[in-house]
Amino acid sequence: MSAESTESGVAMHASERRSVAVVALISMIRMFGLFALLPVLSLYAAELERATPLLIGLAVGAYGLTQAGFQIPLGALSDRIGRIPVILIGLTVFAAGSVVAAMSDSIHGVIGGRLLQGAGAISATLSALITDATREEVRTKSMAVFGIGIGIAFTLAMVAGPLIAANFGVASLFWIAAVLALVAAFMLKLLPEVPQPVKADSWSLVPAFRADLLRVDFYVFLLHTIMTATFVALPFLLSRKLELALTDHWKMYVAALLLSLLITVPMIMKDHRRGRAHLMGIAVCLILVAQLVLTFFGFSWEPVLLGLVLYFAGFNFLEAGLPARLSILANDEVRGASLGVFSTAQFFGAFVGGLIGGRFLGQGRPGDIFFVCALLAGIWLALQGFGQIRRQGG
Prior knowledge:
Elements: H1 3-6, H2 14-35, H3 38-46, H4 53-81, H5 83-102, H6 107-119, H7 123-133, H8 139-168, H9 170-187, H10 211-241, H11 249-274, H12 276-297, H13 301-329, H14 335-361, H15 366-393
Helix pairs in contact: 2-7, 2-8, 2-9, 3-4, 3-10, 4-5, 4-6, 4-7, 4-10, 4-14, 5-6, 5-7, 5-9, 7-14, 8-9, 8-11, 8-13, 10-13, 10-14, 10-15, 11-13, 12-13, 12-15, 14-15
């Protein structure tokens, strides 16, 4: 019987609860700094010196390139020297990148800061730290708390980002991200003693590239490709098509996020009883329908709100479920590296999504970007169905 089917009645120990809470808060603080930029960065970048549509997309997604490049080596390094030193290094680099972007007044400077932000690639190490601190019987529950924390950070950032940017400028969001990274570093002192990761006999990463793990890696690549491309286009849709003032963008986001809970919460509750494959397919369908609604009906606020409700419902379920799935499948001795591959795929998807958004934004039609995202969601749905058929046949 799997841990997923038995853990619902298993309680966390006090040290596990504390560890999960601290790591989730660190992740929330760090991700808030990134998420708060999503709804405003493309508009801000468009006003910078030498900005082009492609460079605008790159400014939004650039952090994903260096995140992708550093997740595996830093995840593997954390398997060797421990999680805490790697997390401290990553938070420091992230803070430095935020300062560089805050002080830049050109598109190239902002891109440089975003690249440096991404070099503080600790998502895999944070996930691995949770697995070190918890028993397998409560692993999925722990990762769900971790994912819910990121969802809360996403919600708060969607509200606070446009408000802060409208009143204090987008550069202030970079300064806030730098300060929050340093706060997160100090929060590491609140952790109880965590068991050291199991060290493998060699540095081989081959076990991290098993077919079942790569399937999950590709899913998270698609999820974040779609997300970043969507948020390249969405601010332009709200500002130019719907003529919604930047100070009012948060109203659309918070309404959509709250309404999406009516879908997300029942899915999460059902997930413990029926397994992830069926519900994952539903979540991808929600994203597909959302992108089609934004493509063809993005001319008034009612269908746009509906599209965002469906999108956030699918995204938040998958954002929590995919890392939980991977943490269960990965071998203990290469869990950091396995989560590094996962995070590499996740953030490379963010980079590709930025490029897609920048490429299709050049025509001045946000709907083109949403349609490409719909195609990607359709490919995901087809691949997932094919994977299920193969597993049943085997």
